[in-house]
Specification:
Layout: E1 16-26, E2 38-48, E3 52-56, H1 63-70, H2 73-76, E4 81-88, E5 91-92, H3 98-102, E6 105-108, H4 121-131, H5 136-149, H6 165-177, E7 183-187, H7 195-210, E8 215-219, H8 223-229, E9 232-237, E10 240-245, H9 247-251, H10 254-259, H11 266-278, H12 287-302
Parallel strand pairs: 3-8, 3-9, 6-7, 7-8
Antiparallel strand pairs: 1-2, 1-4, 4-5, 9-10
């Protein structure tokens, strides 16, 4: 079912698990004579196995559509016009059904309720495995493992609709983990959660990254969390990649981020303020970095001149 693309990145290393080439996409129009509106425009991305990539952008720039293109819902379930190619673990999403891709990539959306519909948590996590015809014993083992990872085993007989927002999102993540994907995509997973729910979700993300080496792609607005977790930040604007780089590189471009309507960590704002006032060259993304740099600078100023 289509050729398998070797996972070779731009540097010639066999490491990419996601490769996106000149991706363009337009949703179907109601009027066949109407000119399609391109939501994504010539996107090129490479994501290495085990990498944590965060995607930022204002509302309507194509973030969710990009997530759907990674798991094949775009274009298999949405129709429309697609150009270019998306390869997930070597599979071309245009040539492989969503069911095949689901065993390689799982997507968790902003509203967990849209993914929950079974009578209890256990049935919810088992649903995807049952649809693939996985043997019953294997299903039980996978469900127990996935619920253990997200700390929800004690709730396995509870209705998912009687859980808190953070717990629902953890169940949604467990449903994806049970499929044993290599890649987990989270589309604004904490946007509708209270602070406790956000903490619950990010603690799971931290474990998946640090303890299990899973490839994570997360759409998120909270720059402090992005700075803490990400290897790389992708900024979308008007369906295109506007900025790309390490968190320090992206968040040091404060004026450009402001024009795009995006926030940067408060500690990065501090660095920008100090640089403007004192002609320094600070780049901060986390509090510990700022503390150590400013402490070192203060101590240096206290040293007696020779």
């Amino acid at each position: 079912m289509g050729r398998i693309l070797p996972l070779i990145n731009r540097y010639g290393n066999l490491s990419n698990i996601v490769t996106i080439e000149n991706l363009g996409y337009a949703y179907p129009t109601l009027d066949p004579n109407e000119e399609p509106e391109w939501v994504l425009r010539k996107i090129n991305l490479e994501i290495a196995a085990g990498e944590f990539v965060s995607i930022m952008g204002a509302t309507g720039v194509g973030k969710t559509t990009l997530c759907l293109a990674m798991n094949g819902i775009v274009p298999h379930s949405t129709g429309g016009i697609i150009r270019g190619n998306v390869y997930i673990d070597g599979l071309n999403t245009k040539r492989h059904p969503v069911a095949d891709l689901a065993q390689r990539i799982g997507v968790v959306f902003q509203e967990p309720e849209t993914q929950l519909f079974n009578v209890n948590v256990e049935a919810e996590v088992a649903f995807g495995l049952e649809s693939l015809g996985i043997p019953r014993l294997d299903i039980q083992e996978r469900v127990t493992w996935a619920l253990s990872v997200v700390g929800m085993n004690e709730f396995r007989q509870r209705s998912p609709f009687k859980l808190s927002g953070g717990q629902k999102q953890r169940v949604a993540i467990a449903s994806m983990l049970a499929m044993s994907p290599k890649i987990l995509v989270l589309d604004e997973p904490t946007a509708s959660l209270d602070p406790l729910g956000k903490m619950e979700v990010f603690s799971i993300v931290r474990e998946l990254r640090q303890q299990r080496g899973m490839t994570i792609v997360m759409v998120e607005h909270e720059s402090e969390h992005i700075a803490e977790f990400s290897d790389r930040v992708i900024v979308l604007n008007n369906g295109k990649v506007e900025m790309e780089g390490k968190p320090a590189n992206v968040f040091s471009r404060a004026a450009e981020m402001q024009v795009l309507g995006l926030s940067i960590p408060q500690v990065s704002e501090l660095a920008e303020c100090l640089n403007q006032r004192h002609k320094t060259n600070y780049v901060f993304t986390q509090f510990d970095e700022a503390y150590l740099a400013l402490k070192e600078s203060a101590l240096a100023k206290q040293q007696p001149s020779v």
